[in-house]
Amino acid sequence: MNVQYASLLIAIPLITAFFVPLMKGLGEKAIKTYVLIITAIQAGIATWVFEEVYTTGKPIIVMAGGWRPPVGIDLYIGPFAALFVLIVALVSFLMAVFNFRAVKVEPIDKYAMLFLLLMLGATGMIATGDIFNLFVFMEITAITAYALTAYNKTGEAAEASLKYMVLGGIGSSFFLIGVALIYGATGTLNMAQIAQLAGNINPTVAQVALALVIFGLAVEAELFPLNAWAPDAYQAAPHPVTAMFSAFVVKAGIYALARILYLMSAVGTWKNILHLLIAMATLTVIVAEFSALRQRNVKRMIAYSSVSQVGLIGLAFALGTQAGVDAGVFQMINHAIIKVLLFLGVGYVAVQLGGAEIENFRGLGKRMPLTALGVTVGSMSAVGIPLFNIFWSKLRIILATVDAGYAWAAALVLGASVVEAVYYFRLVHAIWFTGEGERLRESAPLVAIMLLLIAIIVAIGIYPNYAWSLSQKAGNDIFNVAQYIKNVPLMGVGA
Amino acid sequence: MISAYYFGAISLVLIGLYAVLVKKNVLKMLIGLSIMETGVNLLLVSIGYIYGRSAPILSEGIGPNQAVDPIPQALVLTAIVIGVATTAMALSVAIILYQKYGTLNVEEIRRLRG
Amino acid sequence: MVSILKRSLAVIMLLIIGYWLAQGLSGIPFGQDKMLVGKYYLDNVIRQTGAINAVTAVVVNYRGFDTLGEVTVLFIASTGVGALLWAKRRERTAKTEGSIVLKTGIRLLTPFVILFGAYIFIHGHLTPGGGFPGGATIATAFLLLYMAYTMYEIPRRAFENTEGVAGMSYVIVALIGLAIGGYFLFDWIWQTWHFGVNNVGRILSGGFIPVIYTIIGIKVGTELSGIIDNMLREEVRE
């Protein structure tokens, strides 16, 4: 099969989202089923792409319009992109199942379009090989996220969305100035060619441009000090959307950050940028953990925990070593899995019991035992207890940090983990050892999803080698810039 | 010394940023964001400018060597549309805020929420 | 007092950012020829795309993915505005009808404004303009109608359907390219059919640029009108 068909990853969500207005009268059920089918098809294509990339070992380069890069825009679906496009599609599929229970606010047809386009935006951000195209997909993701954050139309949701929008607007302006500087200095927008020419850029220009791009992406990647929007938005958004934010929207942001960071590694002033990022990431972890400790609302608490774990990923990427990048990718995979489980469980509880306050979780072990099990496993794993998946990635990140000579950062992060343990155990304690209640009937599909995710978490926890080898391949894709340049069939314009 | 065009573009960005940081009215903040975007667009276009050359429409005696760089102009076209989209979204969020709280002052909104 | 402190802090921060940006920009000479890929476009644009307007060729053809994304962004905006301002029943609440001058003028001008919008997007490959300005011009016609008449409303359902169909047509044109030429967004009209090769500089040339710009023009026109409509109607509570 022609590998150019991988462009269907972009085409399918787009064309199906455009189709939704035509089926407006069909009712809520039909539209939700439609979304479910589309995400299933997307997952199918993503699986094919994943197979293709991992069996041949060569990345798929989709050339839009048949123009070879740098003249045209290319999608670079290497080991990393193939893996994460698959995760994006699978998570969307699971959340499309959750939609049936969790989303009741009208107008469902608009929700369906935004849902599909959020998936599209993240897919594009991960796959693109052009820095301005990255900006376009980032804006697709961001604007859909603004709309979905405010979707419940409450005062809090609107305020969260506004906060997100103001920060996102500043971030995207900064990012665009950075792109303008890079374009002015190199005359190209293709990532591979930028990497090729990076060594020749005036170091001051490169440093300013890179810092601007990082500040721009830090909004999406939820790095301190530009992550003030995240807990509010996570709390206010519909539950499936929150899970998607945490599982892949923020991942797409942090991947883009890492990709551009490593592309410019030939720049003379690169180390300064790494120091800046390490400081930002460490602060993210610490501030988020201490804020999580104070929360009464479990959804918000897990949102803070998500921010801190993403900070950990940022730290891993900022080390500038192969081991760090691999560990970061590993943590990305694990974190996506557990946050889907946690937000699914918490969202389900909020739907059934009318809110995500900690009071509602008292006696959950007796009222909704399977959901309670899901939340418990997710919490245990998030803390980093052995036998669960996050243990391995946290361990690798901390080892890589110490290896790279940042023992202070490792110590701070470990300290923050203790804080994390406190609030997660408080939650687990509330679930199992307090409160009483009647047993409620739990929805079979959602329970099935939770059990599946628990199985994956434990499987990776006991036997991490497969996931680790995937992460190593994907990490190498980000770290090994020379290979990246070689993989893109550049036309040799001007160079 | 940097060129006047760059200077103008940076000034617009900074003026917009000032409005976003300091103003309390949501609409004024959004206007600030728009001004920032305009500044960025101006910067992009001025990076593509080349002394003594004309717009990249290759007719009536304008050859490839007499035209300025077309890419920044194409990028600006995209950036403008994205700016419009963001502004439209932001305004509808502002409408919801006004419906819920009866004010567009961010401090008032924060106070009403408690 | 606090506000003065906050303001001066903001000004100091902005000055630092400005100085820093200026430092970065001083490394990029103004007005010099720095083109790399741009040069390639200028040299090959007519032969490869059939458009004499290099900017549109870059927008629609070379960097078509951006434009597809751009169209999507606008679609998201109109969807998002529709989703956020949704209510069971909404009506226009404007109280004063436009003056006689406005009303007569608009009745006369509306068809011409729409025609001018169509002119702009059909000539996208020849003159400055294209689908986005053209569509915006068309939406202006509807905005003027809203301003003049308190009762006027666009046929909402038809507009939403047109928007969806136009978006789908864009993707379908791109997918035909994938089927014929083997690449998504491949310009099959110009590169496979060689349609209009002898017509460069006239309207029937430019490959799929006029086709796509017509689709975009219609889409943007209906989309922006939809946004205007959504913002001008208010919720009615019984």
Task: Give an overview of the whole structure.
The complex is a heterotrimer of chains A (495), B (114) and C (238). A two-stranded antiparallel sheet of chain A has the order 1-2. Chain A has a domain at 271-481. Chain A is built from 20 helices and two strands. Chain A has helices at residues 8-19, 28-56, 79-102, 108-127, 131-149, 155-186, 191-197, 203-221, 229-236, 239-263, 270-293, 298-318, 322-353, 364-367, 369-383, 389-403, 407-433, 444-462, 465-479, 481-487, and strands spanning 60-63, 74-77. With 114 residues, chain B is mainly alpha-helical. Chain B has one domain: Helix Hairpins (Orthogonal Bundle), CATH 1.10.287.3510. Helices cover 72% and strands 0% of the residues of chain B. Chain B contains four helices and no strands. In chain B, helix 1 (4-22) packs antiparallel against helix 2 and helix 2 (26-48) runs antiparallel to helix 3. The longest helix of chain B is centred in the last third of the chain and has 32 residues, at 70-101. Chain B starts with a helix and ends with a helix. Chain C has one domain. Chain C contains nine helices and two strands. Chain C has helices at 2-25, 37-49, 54-62, 64-84, 100-122, 131-148, 156-181, 188-191, 209-232, and strands at 90-92, 233-235. In chain C, helix 5 (100-122) packs antiparallel against helix 6. The mean pLDDT of chain C is 87. Chains in contact: A-B, A-C, B-C. At the B-C interface, helix 1, helix 2 and helix 3 of B face helix 1, helix 2, helix 3, helix 4 and helix 9 of C.
Summarize the structure.
The complex is a heterotrimer of chains A (495), B (114) and C (238). Chain A has 495 residues and is mainly alpha-helical. Chain A has helices at residues 8-19, 28-56, 79-102, 108-127, 131-149, 155-186, 191-197, 203-221, 229-236, 239-263, 270-293, 298-318, 322-353, 364-367, 369-383, 389-403, 407-433, 444-462, 465-479, 481-487; strands at 60-63, 74-77.
